[in-house]
Amino acid sequence: MHPVRLFADFGRELRRVVLGTTEEHQRFRKRLATLILLTLVIDLIGSGLMYWFEHGEPGSEMSSFFRSFFWVTTQLLTVSSQLKNPVTDPGRVVDIFLEVWAITVVATVAAAFAAFLQKK
């Protein structure tokens, strides 16, 4: 299949998912929305934990909840950013969980799109 046509078909299907054109598109949209919502919840919980574990520790950059939120969000979006690593052991455990979550979400979304488009 020609790459331009492949991207055009992908764009058309993505638009149908967003609009919920068919029941199948609506189910897929609901799954994606659930995954996004869970990731936002993980982001907020992770931010709170990182602030709690890292706040006031020597060498830590988590001086406010917003900085913790920024750090956690960056970790989830980039899977290992250039920001400073946690300095406490509990913070490192949270970091590992966030990395595993981010990789799992990216792989799940890619597989879900591939399976959905394969059916088409």
Note down, in words, how this protein is organized:
The protein is mainly alpha-helical and 120 residues long. It has a single domain, classed as Helix Hairpins (Orthogonal Bundle). The protein contains four helices and no strands. The chain has helices at 3-19, 23-54, 65-78, 89-119. Helix 2 (23-54) packs across helix 3. The model has no long low-confidence stretch (mean pLDDT 87).
Return the string of H and E elements. HHHH
Query: Which architecture per CATH?
Result: Orthogonal Bundle
Number of strands: 0
- Specify Rg, calculated over alpha carbons: 18 Å
Classify the beta-strand content into a percent band.
under 5%
Q: How far is the N terminus from the C terminus?
A: 14 Å
Number of alpha- plus pi-helical segments: 4
Indicate the CATH topology.
Helix Hairpins
Largest β sheet strand count, sense and barrel closure: none
Look at the helices and sheets and give the structural class. Answer: mainly alpha
> What are the segments in which pLDDT stays under 50 over at least 5 consecutive residues?
none
List keywords for this structure.
single chain, 78% helix, mainly alpha
Write a compact overview of the structure shown:
The chain has 120 residues and is an all-alpha fold. It is built from four helices and no strands.
Helix/strand layout:
Layout: H1 3-19, H2 23-54, H3 65-78, H4 89-119
Helix pairs in contact: 1-2, 2-3, 2-4, 3-4
